[in-house]
Amino acid sequence: MLEQILANAPVFLLVAGRCFALVMTIPLFSLRNVSRLAKVAFTGYFAYLVMPHVQTAVYAPFLADGANSLLYILLLAGEVLLGIITGFYITIIFSAFSTAGQFFAFQMGFSASEVYDAVSQVENPLMGQFFNLIAMLIFLQNHWAQRLFGQALVSSFDSITALSIVSGREKIVSFLFAGLSHLFLDAFIIALPIMGTLLLINVAMGILSKAAPMMNMMSEGFPTMILVSFFIIMALMPNLCEFFSHSFEGAFRNLEQLYAVLTRGGGA
């Protein structure tokens, strides 16, 4: 194993650069609680497994001057950028789930209960973190993590290289912007039933407060909205889990389509 790595050290470093950038950007694997030594070891082992799928003929003209040339450094930066793009797109998917919780957390009365979310590594409302953890469980249970590293990453080495960033930069930018637009669309679809129900409750409480001013709607309204919100989440949980799974499936399908488009465009 070590002899093969040393014999193909420049190619191995390119593969490891893309793998390490992916590990450092996708949720769960990029947590600060995970040891950096474990991340480096996982990257090196997986890069060794992926290296036979790399099209070394594409890199041959840039490896003629060795690993100390400027072209090789730019090529390594391109590989790292490809890993960051893939990890950033997976992060966008998880951000849709946490954003959905942020949409109705204010109406529930949980907007002030922000805690540190270890998955997204930001301050997140409680419901956003709850949806994020549910999505992470589905991501691991349905083997999407294995598919990401065992299929998507390997197919990316089969189809695109760092040179694809130059030839397909417009496609990559439009792909990322489309992912951002789908982020808010998916978040709105998830939060719409709860937001609509809470809106009706607020309207009903406003009418009751005008009809009977002696009733303390402020003290009664928040417990009612919290109970109703949790009841709706509990009733919709099977549908939410199915929607999360379809979101991951659509995301990986979009990644495969991007790789295919870049391949047809001569990116490889």
Helix/strand order: HHHHHEEHHHHH
Strand % is under 5%
Total strands: the figure is: 2
Enumerate how many helices there are, as a single number.
10
Secondary-structure content class: mainly alpha
The helicity comes to over 70%
What does the main sheet amount to? Answer: 2 strands, antiparallel
Q: Which residues sit in consecutive blocks of at least 5 with pLDDT less than 50?
A: none
Any idea what the shape is? elongated
Describe this structure in words.
With 268 residues, the protein is mostly helical. Helix content is 78%, strand content 3%. It has ten helices and two strands; from the N terminus they run αααααββααααα. It has a two-stranded antiparallel ribbon. A hairpin with a 4-residue loop joins β1 and β2. α5 runs antiparallel to α10 and α7 runs parallel beside α10. The longest helix is centred in the C-terminal third of the chain and has 48 residues. The chain is elongated, with a radius of gyration of 23 Å. The model has no long low-confidence stretch (mean pLDDT 79).
